[in-house]
# Entry
Amino acid sequence: MPQIIRVDNEACFNSVLMKAALASLGIRLQTIDLHCPWQNGRIERFFGTLKRHLDRIAVHGRDELQVKLVEFRCWYNHARPHQHLAGHTPAEAWVGRGKSTKRPQWFEAWDGYITGWYFPP
# Structure
């Protein structure tokens, strides 16, 4: 369980219900300053990338959306190298390992809109 969750100032995050639920779990809610999205840069970057890619496909129903989100998370964290992480994926940077020497696997989803090489650990 996280100790703190950092969010922007959307009403849904600052509702009485949200605050009570997090408090009951022992999680502190931390909000960024108004009109300062850079204070929550990682999630802002994630949502910006997700929106840009979601605009390219049609999703039919909740079950298909769930599958698409799992595929996106896989691509975003494991098959998408990042220039500010020295060409590593977020997953590689998180665990502090370099590129695997195992044979990479081609990752493709969303009718080819998200692609990349996955290097198994």
The helical segments are 16-24, 41-54, 62-79, 90-95. Residues 40-118 form one domain. The beta strands are 4-7, 28-31, 105-109, 114-118.
